[in-house]
């Protein structure tokens, strides 16, 4: 277990000076359980994205973090030394935590009694290579206001399927797919009021032009608006390859946070040396997402108690 922090003193919304995790990490999934933040991500900084372990980062303010190892690929029965551990995400259902993750270019599933594990992997891939017409990577979860959970994934083509109430399987006949705009990967959906927001990454994560676009609709069936940019590179600030994000609502509040990765700003920035940062997400009066202007540092959301469910 490791603990680390990096923050300016100041009021709500104060920025951090740099990468808040002090590590190379990518593909964030940020969730709040109780009054604690939990960040699941890809361990980066290795050639070919070859990490073989998953960690969870725990915080009360997006600033001070504790790191815990939660799953090794050696503990995954169907992994036999292929591609590495990528893009985990968490679903909390019926008192259990379900981790969806990528290993060997397939999506796996593991279950634990709490967000810090220990996680036990299923015997077979949840979505195997060849099950659908895409590379099955970059899972994300969406739980609608009626408490129905969905899993999204894909590369080149986006897929979404309704999960069973316990989150352990996909419901028969529920999977749908689309190719929104210049979709590449990392599709996610969130709902605010009566509006659904889909967002995704386009270009390759090694491309300095990697960026995030979004669209909205009155239902999951559409119609979806013309895509717009949510986050893109700022070359003047040396901020490049802003992509693979997640959007998280603070429970009980209309406060929203976007976590995303980009090239690390330590001189080693590329597609295998990435950093995760946080930013507030705002909405215009008409409900449109306000474009996020990336900053050199990161956003700090101070701890607040109590947090209502």
Automatic annotation (TrEMBL):
Protein name: Family 43 glycosylhydrolase
Any Pfam family: Glyco_hydro_43
Keywords: Carbohydrate metabolism, Glycosidase, Hydrolase, Polysaccharide degradation, Xylan degradation
Organism: Bifidobacterium choladohabitans
UniProt record similarity statement: Belongs to the glycosyl hydrolase 43 family.
């Amino acid at each position: 277990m490791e603990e680390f922090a990096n923050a300016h003193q100041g009021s709500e919304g104060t920025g951090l000076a740099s990468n808040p995790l002090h590590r190379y990490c990518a593909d964030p999934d940020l969730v709040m359980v109780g009054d604690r933040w939990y960040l699941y991500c890809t361990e980066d900084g290795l050639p070919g994205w070859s990490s073989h372990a998953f960690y969870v980062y725990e915080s009360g303010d997006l600033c001070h973090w504790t790191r815990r190892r939660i799953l090794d690929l050696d503990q995954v029965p169907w992994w036999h030394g292929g591609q590495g551990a990528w893009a985990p995400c968490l679903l909390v259902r019926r008192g259990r935590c379900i981790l969806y993750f990528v290993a060997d270019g397939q999506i796996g599933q593991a279950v634990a009694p709490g967000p810090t594990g220990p996680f036990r992997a299923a015997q077979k891939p949840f979505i195997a290579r060849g099950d659908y017409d895409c590379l099955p990577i970059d899972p994300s979860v969406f739980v609608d206001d009626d408490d129905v959970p969905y899993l999204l994934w894909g590369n080149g083509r986006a897929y979404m399927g309704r999960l069973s109430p316990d989150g352990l399987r996909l419901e028969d006949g529920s999977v749908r797919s689309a190719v929104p705009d210049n979709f590449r990967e990392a599709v996610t959906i969130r709902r605010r009021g009566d509006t659904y927001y889909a967002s995704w990454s386009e270009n390759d994560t090694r491309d300095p032009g990697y960026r995030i676009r979004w669209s909205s609709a009155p239902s999951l069936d559409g119609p979806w608006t013309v895509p717009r940019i949510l986050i893109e590179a700022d070359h003047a600030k040396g901020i490049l390859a802003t992509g693979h994000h997640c959007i998280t609502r603070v429970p009980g509040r209309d406060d929203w946070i976007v976590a995303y990765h980009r090239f690390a700003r330590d001189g080693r920035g590329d597609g295998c040396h990435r950093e995760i940062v946080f930013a507030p997400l705002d909405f215009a009066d008409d409900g449109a997402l306000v474009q996020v202007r990336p900053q050199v540092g990161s956003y700090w959301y101070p701890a607040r108690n109590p947090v209502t469910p």
